[in-house]
Structure formats: structure tokens, C-alpha cells
Amino acid sequence: MPEQKGVFVTKYELTDEEYAKMWEESKNNLGRIEPDEQLKELGLITEKGEYVRSKSEKIIADTLTKNNINYVYELPLRLKGYGTVKPDFTVLNKRTRQEYVWEHFGMMDDSIYVKNAIKKIEQYGKSGYVQGRNFIATFESKEAPLNTVTINRVIQDFFQ
């Protein structure tokens, strides 16, 4: 019987935290651009120091940060038949290593906005983004504003 000689390689798996850090760093290097002056003028800054477009986006971002959930704000994404969009949040479930797109539709009182939102959601579907599987959509209007109960429920259901 031949003598077996060899080198044993120990497989190293990244911890969830290591993976999440690498994921966020790699995503932040993909086509992100500096916020424009209009965005800066809104003065809505997250706990991570990012400029966002609405108070609700700030609340979502800060709640994700508070819960140690990695995300990238407005990471460009190409949708089939629609072009490039910048979803509000691309979010990682570090335990399952699944990536989600989270869009917040915050002006549901505006009929033109609603029409465009529906078209955009349809294009997400055609590009393989399915609500509850890899796509999250939250909505609000003046009569029904987004609240922390809803945000925390989404975080509990998808990321913890």
C-alpha cells in the first residue's frame, strides 16, 4: 500500500460578522456616488453619516444600524426593461447571507407617484425581485405614515 503524503488544508469559513463587513465594503465600492447638493440640503443624516431623502428613510436606516444589520443606501441596480434604479436600501441578512432590496414608497397620496411606483414594482418582479422573497416594500401616506412598529416587524421577519 503506498504511503500517503499530502498537505491538509483547513477550510476557513468567514463568521457572519466578517462576511457582513466584506459584503458591505464590496457593495459600497460598486458605483456609489457622493450625494448631490440637493440631497445634502435636505439635512437628513443617518447615524452612519449618510444623507437620505426622507425622514422615513432616516428612521429605517437608523433602525437597521441599531439592530446591527448591514445595508447600503441607494446602490444602483439594473432592472429589465426599466433601466438603472437606486433602491432605497440593499440589505443583508448576515445569518442566511441573503440580500434583499427594500424600497420605501412614501408619497402614496400622489396619484402620479403611485402610478410610477406600481410600474417600478412590476419591473422589480420582471427582474426576479419578489415581495417577501428578496424584495421588501413599505408604503406610507399622510393618513397612514410609516411607523417604527412596521419597521421593527419587517426587521424581525427578514433579518433576525
Number of strands: 6
Radius of gyration: 19 Å
- Approximate shape: globular
Structural class: alpha+beta
Classify the fold: give the CATH topology.
Answer: Trna Endonuclease, Chain: A, domain 1
CATH class, please?
Alpha Beta
What percent strand?
A: 15-25%
Strand order in the sheet with the most strands: 1-4-5-6
By DSSP (H or I, 4+ residues per run), the number of helices equals 5
How far apart are the first and last residues' alpha carbons, in Å? Answer: 52 Å
Task: Summarize the model shown.
With 160 residues, the chain is an alpha+beta fold. It has one domain (16-159): Trna Endonuclease, Chain: A, domain 1.
Helices, strands, pairings?
Elements: H1 16-28, H2 37-42, H3 55-66, E1 71-73, E2 77-79, E3 83-85, E4 89-93, E5 98-105, H4 111-126, E6 135-139, H5 148-159
Parallel strand pairs: 5-6
Antiparallel strand pairs: 1-4, 2-3, 4-5
Helix pairs in contact: 3-5
Short descriptors:
160 residues, alpha+beta, Trna Endonuclease, Chain: A, domain 1, 6 strands, 37% helix, 17% strand, globular, Conserved domain protein
Explain what this protein looks like in three dimensions.
With 160 residues, the chain is of the alpha+beta class. It has a single domain, classed as Trna Endonuclease, Chain: A, domain 1, CATH 3.40.1350. 37% of the residues lie in helices and 17% in strands. It is built from 5 helices and 6 strands; from the N terminus they run H-H-H-E-E-E-E-E-H-E-H. A 4-stranded mixed β-sheet has the order 1-4-5-6, with helices on both faces. A two-stranded antiparallel sheet has the order 2-3. Helix 3 packs across helix 5. The mean pLDDT is 92.
